[in-house]
Amino acid sequence: MKIKRILAFLAGMLIAISAVWITNQPEQVSASVFQKTAVPKKFCGTWYRYWGNGKVKPFKITRTEINLDGCADGKGGVYKYTKRAYNAKSGSSHLLIKTKGNRMWICSPHGQTSAAYVTGDRKKLYVVVDTWVDTYFKSKSAARKNYKADRSMSRRNQLSKLVWGN
Fold it and tell me: Comparing C-alpha atoms, which of 81, 159, 87, 83 is closest to residue 127?
């Protein structure tokens, strides 16, 4: 009789421990949630932004990385934006992008969404982070010369509508 009680107690303990172990396992994201993609060629290259006091800062966009002011660091790779990828639990090193024409939407899982718009002549890149539009230029001299052009509030509203596609 004692042996049956001991075996029943041990079986109960084994079930309880395995249930706790299973529920405490970290959630892993399936690899199929994130689909690698490449940044379109029209957005790639070195873009320059005026930084004040005559200084111009370079920002690079490659086929696999996006490094822009205000956007999450894209060193973890660029992936296709899907609802499942956006809602997935993962580190912030992933950047999700979705492109259509001259527009590109950039976000990290559970993060804020930024939008980018490249002009037809590929000389200006407008990026909206929150509600502010940042203008990047293909050349340093253009960044130094033209940084004041898009500063007015009425122009900011026009650019925001242009970038978001409203």
Answer: 159
The encoded tokens of residue 148 equal 């004041």
* Residues sharing a CB contact under 8 Å with residue 128, sequence separation 6 or more, in sequence order: 114, 115, 116, 134, 159, 160, 163, 164
Q: Please, what is the end-to-end C-alpha distance for the chain in angstroms?
A: 78
DSSP H/E element including 55: strand 55-61
Residues 102-157: tens digit of each pLDDT: 999 988 777 788 889 998 888 999 888 877 888 899 999 888 888 777 677 677 77
Residue 66 and residue 37 in contact, taking contact as beta carbons nearer than 8 Å: no
pTM over 0.70: yes
Task: Pull the structure tokens for residue 5.
Answer: 């009680």
Tell me the H-state helices in the chain. Answer: 2-23, 83-87, 140-146, 153-164
Pairing type for strands 45-52 and 95-100 reads unpaired
Mean pLDDT, rounded, of the chain: 81
Q: Which residue type does 18 have?
A: S
Residue 157 CB partners (closer than 8 Å, separation 6+): none
